[in-house]
Design brief:
5-stranded mixed beta sheet; Aldehyde Dehydrogenase, Chain A, domain 1; Aldehyde Dehydrogenase, Chain A, domain 2; 2 domains; homodimer; 19% strand
């Protein structure tokens, strides 16, 4: 595929109206061809008018037709995986092999959402039949299904240029829900974005869908994102990125005359608690595992186990030593963007200024854009006294917390803000402490992991990638896993309808063969 | 029950700290004994600290225990229904018989939520078993259930002093979800609020639950509501009332350091579309029905069919004449509060200042607090040109819209903001127009009613009482019906857990006998 750098709107390519940019290779510090177009509010407006036009037909596609469309995107994603991986590697400084895997896994996500669409259970069809003889008042027939919200604005994330970007899980779940998508591409990987966007655009055309079903826009600074969030035809927004960026969009959307749902996935340190018996039994193994998982994607992962807490005692020294040994094996690596690298350096220094002791580090940085692995340590007292030590350092820094007692462990657990995940390493002898800790963690996180690390991320029905603020802006939803579709649908009740005017999912005789809730009982 | 006027916090009665008030009888214009206590931020803080304390135990109550608690509230509501109806009638000027029915129906809502709790399907248990041999990476065991958000602040509504107030559907659904409730009582019916609050307080005590599970607060002006919405321990807010009031709370909550879900149900004119064949066949019947349902609760109902639209043609004159005849039968009636009456008079006048013609009216007002029934008419051109004609007049005013064509009918349908419901009267010969209109309505409303009126409200699994803004602040939820519980729960994933540490709902062998999603398929 020859990259053209154009925006993708209405099934066609749209040249720059607001300047251009080039991709940056953080491994070499060089800019890469070609020039990528920037657009502005006019392009956002055009994309959204088309998306709005597309809504009526796209949201009413048959389940099989929509599933086939998602599978076509999956096929195309697999077909371009080598090219996509090579370009993404250039734009991120991360290994191409990682992105081949990411492309295949993300194609799998589209296939899983195709299965969700075919099952049709996401429609949550419910039927309360008429009860004409009920006393004191008869009951009319009521039938409910979920419908698509409308055009969705999706902000591509910087850190996973496939799975959380243009052809990522947000797009898959919004398209599965029946929502047209206007995608704001992240400027850290414009070439990867174009490849992904063009295959979706092709799939839209080959599936005979309205060309407004998908658009890709890009712009300098914040203006294009603000135009998206402000646009009256946008009905939902998703964003994955920093707390500052996410909250700016969130608060802006809430100031619209008509507020819309905004799901932002922002920040998490994914605290890992190691209880005494587990620490004594396998401290070294946990210390090694911590660093290995923590360094994944150069520490630029939402599920990075950034903070490990353990009561000082048997095994703690071994854990620390193993972590120091492991971190020394990590080369400095290019970070996603120079801006992310600068923030990383600043935030890692902030931890040290706030008393974190440097236990170990990776090899020296090759140059200014490379992030050096760091292992820091604080005491429980320090963690409790200084809130910023409980905040994320996006990049390859890990923090050990040496606690003085089980009581302090519980106190520390209570001090964290909302998290995407928390991890518990515990053996049978730790059961009492584990049982005391679990309710504390459950209140603060969307996922609890037991005796394992939460990376790699599993995309399945029981996945939660969400959690209380600031992990996300709405803990009732997940951005990964089959439940992600629920961000984009709303209930509609059809009351006293003749069968022929009802949506297929709600008709007598259950022509789609769905699981439906009939008078409160599941049936099909 | 002897009313004491106290606030209800922590299982006890709390006297006034910020002055007192008396209830007002809008039928007689007289104040009624006793004095009711006002509290302030200190009482809110106390209630929320207790609610937060109660969360850990209450959110973990067994399903049977929680269901029995809800049924106990239902029993108590039925037991006090005569006393509650009599007091509510005094405080609203509406007939006691209406409130006996409302008390019984609302007890039914608690019983229905008890059934929802017993079924346990709201936990949405999902299990993706481990696949240790999967290639290229094994899958860990993932299990998901929904958990309660935390303490919920509920604002009692003015217009249904039982079903949307202290012991109403919001409270039933939040308690069913496992959330403690802090209820801000509406000052329009403090006696009804006390009766309802005390039976819940009794039920909490008799069920052996933590006394923080329920509290009732009351205050002058906005301060107490603001303290509630701002409090760091509140995890969700629900409100039913005006757009101005709802949006003030909504925007305030979004300005918290940690935004929380706020569900506000605000305003809807529930447009009724009468298509030509239906109009010709039964115009008079529809005109009579419109007024009869429109006058329910003195026009102070969220589902009031406030605006009826029809293309001028055979049957229109009959519809109009029948409506004029019917409206003339309606006495002026006391409205809920003098403030609501004033706003009603002002808004009905606004319609007329904006060109609405007075077709008919009820009998003359007895005095200043009584609302007079009004039937107004505008043309389609007028409705399209003047946005306020598409807005709610809360009270017994109905607006007929005489359209010039089917095209104008579609244009008018597109002009409305989001609605709780829309109604379609259509016969077989109207099918083409109906099929063109339905997608337009579906985008703008949470419920479409066919050849019927949407009052009375049915509380069931297929109920949606929600809709796009400004009907509600989040169209993905409903405030009435079994789905209302979803406002108060969030997913948590337990990854790689030993069976004995899992919540009951997720354990091997399915000890609770729930429907669960196992590897994407429903099973039990």
């Amino acid at each position: 595929m020859t990259l053209t750098g154009d925006l993708l709107i209405g099934g066609g390519r749209v040249p720059a109206t607001a300047g251009t940019m080039k991709a940056f290779n953080p491994a070499t510090g060089e800019f890469i061809e070609p020039e990528f177009a920037f657009g502005g509010p006019a392009e956002v407006d055009r994309a959204l008018r088309l998306a709005d036009e597309a809504y009526d037909s796209y949201s009413r596609t048959g389940l099989e037709e929509r599933a086939l469309f998602l599978e076509l995107i999956a096929d195309k994603l697999e077909a371009v995986k080598d090219e996509l991986a090579a370009r993404t590697s250039l734009e991120t400084g991360l290994p191409a092999a990682q992105f081949e895997g990411e492309a295949v896994r993300t194609a799998g996500v589209f296939r899983k959402f195709a299965a969700v669409v075919r099952q049709g259970r996401f429609l949550q069809a419910a039927i309360d039949p008429a009860q004409p003889d009920r006393q004191p008042t008869p009951r009319m027939d009521h039938r409910l299904q979920k419908v698509a919200l409308g055009p969705v604005a999706i902000f591509g994330a910087s850190n996973f240029p496939i799975s959380y970007s243009v052809a990522g899980g947000d797009t898959a779940s919004a398209l599965a829900a029946g929502c047209p998508v206007v995608l704001k591409a992240h400027n850290a990987h414009p070439g990867a974005s174009e490849i992904e966007g063009r295959i979706i655009q092709e799939a839209v055309a080959e599936s005979g869908l309205h060309p407004g079903v998908f658009a890709l826009v890009r712009g300098p600074g914040n203006e294009i994102g603000e135009a998206l969030v402000d646009h009256p035809l946008v009905k939902a927004v998703t964003f994955t990125g920093s707390e500052a960026g996410g909250m700016a969009l969130y608060r802006r959307a809430q100031q619209r005359p008509d507020p819309i749902p905004v799901f932002t996935e922002m920040t998490s340190v994914n605290p890992t608690f190691v209880l005494p018996a587990a620490l004594a039994a396998r401290g070294a193994e946990i210390g090694t595992g911590l660093v290995q998982r923590g360094m994944y994607n150069v520490g630029q992962a939402c599920l990075k186990p950034a903070v490990l807490l353990a009561v000082e005692g048997p095994g703690y020294a071994e854990l620390r030593e193993a972590a120091v040994t492991e971190v020394a094996k990590w080369d400095a690596r290019p970070m996603l963007t120079p801006g992310i690298h600068d923030a990383y350096t600043r935030n890692a220094q902030r931890h040290q200024d706030n008393g974190a002791v440097r236990l170990g580090e990776g090899t020296a940085p090759e140059d200014g854009a490379y992030g050096q692995a760091l292992l820091l340590e604080v005491t429980g007292e320090q963690l409790l006294a200084e809130p910023t030590l409980r905040e994320e350092v996006f990049g390859p820094t890990l923090l050990l917390v040496k606690l003085s007692s089980s009581e302090q462990l519980l106190e520390a657990a209570r001090a964290f803000r909302g998290q995407l995940s928390a991890t518990l390493h515990a053996d049978a002898a730790d059961r009492t402490t584990a049982e005391a800790l679990l309710p504390v963690l459950e209140r603060r996180t969307g996922r609890i992991v037991f005796n394992a690390f939460s990376i790699p991320q599993e995309v399945s029905y029981a996945t939660t990638h969400g959690g209380p603020f600031p992990a996300t802006s709405d803990s009732r939803f997940t951005s990964v896993g089959m439940g992600a579709i629920e961000r984009f649908i709303r209930p509609v009740t059809y009351q006293n309808f003749p069968d022929e005017l009802l949506p297929q999912a709600l008709r007598d005789g259950n022509p789609l063969g769905l699981w439906r809730l009939v008078d409160g009982e599941l049936a099909r």
